[in-house]
Design a protein that fits this description.
The protein is of the alpha+beta class. It has three domains: 1-121, no CATH class; 129-183, Thrombin, subunit H (Beta Barrel); 190-273, Rod shape-determining protein MreC, domain 2 (Thrombin, subunit H, Beta Barrel). 34% of the residues lie in helices and 27% in strands. It contains two helices and twelve strands; from the N terminus they run H-H-E-E-E-E-E-E-E-E-E-E-E-E. It has a six-stranded antiparallel barrel with strand order 1-2-5-4-3-12. It has a six-stranded antiparallel β-barrel with strand order 6-7-8-11-10-9. Helix 1 crosses helix 2. The protein starts with a helix and ends with a strand.
């Protein structure tokens, strides 16, 4: 009922307006359009009764109805436009997410290609056969990794494990198709090492400490400045004084060096050259 009344009232007002306009036209004879009657004066300067009636009853609701219709029309257009904008924003968000995902996948492929190129151009080591392997398990808390090669590929305990930028560790356990490696930071890892510097070639024993660093012990009491023998920034490589490790494989770099007051030996803290958490492919050196 409310809906019917809301439609009926404007219709009645329109009919009334038409009727009054017709009466006004007959009375004045000079009004050519309905809207011109709003302020048309009579000959004596006064507005006639019909004109006043039209102005009072018809024009206000007509104007209000026109304003309401304009508001509704503008609101509807705004709602439609807002819906279109929301749809466009969702489309742009989807496109952006797809492009970011594509970029991440391309970056991952590029990193993988870089690693493969480095492994492909790994320099050959005289007296050793290279067995390429993938890291299949990592246990950094125990300083160990596992590889997908074993006795079937000729791998034996004690074999060095390397990557292009340095020494990873040493094979300690071997199965038919798998082996386990102690990293250079493992507490049981030890290797003969050399300070690789133009004016110093000091030799010592490098051991893992179970954390992220190692210790190079040089069994020599310095007679002059300690930095003449070893100092921060020096590279440390394998010494090559045993048959297990070839000479010249980078192990790490010296962070700091000190003289042990109790034993008199030199102890240098060494940071590994290889980031063990990012190792995926390695080479096992087999004799």
């Amino acid at each position: 009922m409310r809906g019917s009344n809301s439609i009926l009232i404007p219709l009645l007002l329109c009919v009334l307006g038409v009727a009054l306009g017709s009466l006004q036209s007959r009375a004045k004879g000079r009004i050519e359009a309905f809207g011109e009657a709003e302020s048309q004066p009579s000959h004596n300067g006064r507005v006639d009764f019909v004109t006043r009636s039209v102005q009072f009853f018809v024009f206000p609701p007509t104007r209000a109805l026109d304003g309401a219709l304009t508001f509704v029309s503008d609101s509807a257009m705004s709602f439609v436009e807002a819906g279109r904008l929301r749809t466009r924003v969702r489309e742009l968000e989807t496109t952006l997410a797809e492009r970011l995902d594509r970029t991440r996948r391309l970056e991952a492929l590029e990193r993988e290609n870089t690693r493969l190129r480095e492994m492909q151009h790994f320099p050959s080591v005289a007296g050793f056969r290279e067995v390429k392997a993938d890291v299949i398990a990592v246990n950094l808390s125990n300083q160990r990794v596992s590889l997908n090669v074993g006795s079937k590929q000729g791998v034996q305990p004690g074999a060095p494990v390397v990557v292009p930028n340095g020494l990873v560790g040493q094979v300690v356990e071997v199965g038919s198709g798998v082996c386990h490696v102690n990293l250079v930071t493992h507490p049981r890892f030890a290797v003969g090492a050399r300070v690789f510097r133009a004016d110093s070639q000091e030799i010592g024993i490098l051991r893992g400490r179970g954390g992220e660093r190692m210790v190079l012990t040089i069994y020599r009491e310095p007679t002059g400045a300690l930095s003449a023998l070893v100092r921060g920034g020096d590279e440390v490589t394998t010494s090559g004084l045993s048959d297990v490790y070839p000479a010249g494989i980078l192990i790490g770099r010296v962070a700091e060096a000190n003289r042990n007051r109790m034993t008199g030996v030199i102890e240098a803290t060494v940071v590994p050259a290889v980031n063990m958490a990012k190792v995926h492919e390695v080479v096992v050196l087999v004799r």
